[in-house]
Design goal:
Layout: E1 3-9, H1 29-44, E2 51-54, H2 58-71, E3 79-80, H3 89-97, E4 105-110, H4 114-119, E5 136-141, E6 155-160
Parallel strand pairs: 1-4, 2-3, 2-4
Antiparallel strand pairs: 1-5, 5-6
Helix pairs in contact: 1-2
């Protein structure tokens, strides 16, 4: 069975309030426009999630909800994962291992630098220096179970970002 993983870095966030905690930083106007635009790109490519997992930080919640709306995914079904907040690559693997096998396509909305590091582990043929804000990397595998994803042969087939 083909499985698809889409990694999405949160959209551009606001630094208007320097006293605001990093966790509570919202999207700025550009981010509010780019997130739905990237969701539309996914829908045009017929990449529709069965599950969206997202860091529970404000900017990732806002990004995930805007993308969900564009791809026709019920935002009430987004699973908020606090451990995705500024996590290391092994946490992405841990989260993926817990995905039910009935899910064919999963979106994960998270943060740099971990999302860039994890994206670079998806395939020896894919390498980026930095995942741009609202950037997306998608990989597919023919693995039968999500808990084998970390050792499965994977192919990166999409790298998109605003302004590309």
């Amino acid at each position: 069975m083909q499985r698809t993983l889409v990694l999405i870095r949160h959209a551009k966030s606001s630094w208007a309030n320097p006293l605001q905690s990093d966790f509570e930083r919202p999207l700025n106007d550009r981010g509010k426009e780019e997130a739905p635009a990237m969701g539309k790109k996914l829908k045009e490519k017929n990449i529709i999630p069965d599950l969206i997992l997202s860091s529970s930080a404000k900017r990732t919640r806002q990004t995930a909800k805007r993308i969900a709306k564009e791809v026709g995914y019920d935002a009430d079904n987004i699973k908020w994962e606090e451990k995705l907040y500024h996590c290391i690559p092994s946490v992405f693997e841990e989260v993926i291992n817990d995905v039910k096998d009935s899910v064919k396509t999963v979106f994960i909305v998270a943060h740099n630098p971990g999302i860039t590091e994890f994206a670079n582990q998806l395939s020896p043929l894919f390498r980026i220096d930095n995942m741009p804000t609202c950037g997306m990397v998608a990989a597919k595998t023919e693995e039968a179970h999500w808990n084998n994803f970390s050792s499965a042969k994977r192919e990166v087939f999409l790298f998109e970002y605003p302004g590309k």
